[in-house]
Amino acid sequence: MGESKRTATETQRRSDLESRRSPQNRPAHKLIAENFLGWIGAVRECVEQMKDRLPRNTDPEALATYVLAVMEGGVMLSRSYGSVDPFDRAVKQLREHFRLLVSTRRLSKRKA
Hints:
The chain is mainly alpha-helical. The chain contains 4 helices and no strands. Helix 2 (26-49) crosses helix 3. The longest helix has 27 residues, at 85-111. 7% of the residues are buried.
């Protein structure tokens, strides 16, 4: 039951996002999306270069998307607050996330 509830919530979120995109802005949104895809691709290449240091089940595309979401969210918050502190905190936590991913892989290698 919980799974179908999450699915319905996710469907509602997607619908809400789509309804906010006005037709006249679609060309701009397309260009913005292409730009983000380029950044995700660049980050994915970096993730793939370090895949031997990451847990085996790491999804490079998902991790690259996560990195971009953290960075862009940090930019948005920093602009809103008029301070780079939110961006710096987000990047600090992102570095910690990568440190934990790498240490997880090291621990699994030791056990093998």
